[in-house]
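Hi everyone,

Forwarding the result from last night's run.
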Amino acid sequence: MADASERARREAARAELIDAIEQLGYPAEFGEVIAHELGGEKSMRHMTAYLRGADPHSPEQIADEMLAILDQRHRWVEQKIGERANASVTAWYNRGRSAE
């Protein structure tokens, strides 16, 4: 479970994302949906940076970027799973051998 400071950072990232969406002229509810789908603090901060830097001109562009961020996170998670599995196999190969 997340500690209080982690929850506070996540909530601050969520509020910043919603504010960035509202500054572009979209309703706060749209920002809430985007924040909910992104879920994590880093993803929300990434999205906020995109919104402030790219100035998207349609909700479709915002949704496309959200999906790209989710895809990037998914690929990163898959990479980390693969790295952990590879490390486990390597450790198994390199384990000490008992007297055979």
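The mean pLDDT is 92.

Cheers,
N.
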